[in-house]
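One record is kept unedited as follows:
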Amino acid sequence: MSGGPAGPAEAPAAPRVLASVPWIVVLLGVGLIAGLLVIALLSLRGEERQPVPAPAPPMYLPTLGVDVPTTAPPTGATGTPTGSATPSPSATASPSADASRSATPRPSTSTRAAARGAVTARYEATASDRDGFEARLTVVNGSGGGQSWEVQLLFTGNVKTIEASSTSGVSVSTQGSGVFVLRGTGPLPAGQTATVRMRFGRTGAGDQPGQCTVNGADCVIG
């Protein structure tokens, strides 16, 4: 009677094996994953341990020689600096030609006439009183031939009358108040002088004309 119930007690072994199969698969998967992780770690360490290649040596390019052009000094250049204090000949203080001409007094018309051998005249007051004055007119022919002459005297309005005489001959006319014209009665020979003595009547003072001309040129007054 004790041997009968022992048979049915061995029957549950198969379900236990089947029940442990999923755990075996899980363990295998875990082991596989762990193995893959180990392989990956080993491969990463292998890459880190690879030696870093040494840097390549620097490359030097050949240097080309460049000829620097030398500038030749200009022809005729000297060692004297350009800004030297020595004045150039053109910077002299001598007056220019225009300044010389302007500073030189211009000759009068009578002087120019005498220089070219024309007729000249000179008026001089010789005496004066209350009613008038006396004067002398000297006419000179500096030309090479006989010359006619005409002298015009221009006074202010206070000179009213004139009386004139000359050994060579003279005529007198009046052209307005204070204007008197004297002419030689004949040509004055070359190199000769005609002297005219005059007496003027006046009211007031003054014995010199404001203007005196001989043949259109200025006379010398005084």
Observations:
- The radius of gyration is 71 Å.
- The chain has a mean pLDDT of 76.
- Strands lie at 119-128, 132-141, 150-154, 159-166, 170-174, 179-184, 193-202, 211-214, 217-218, 220-221.
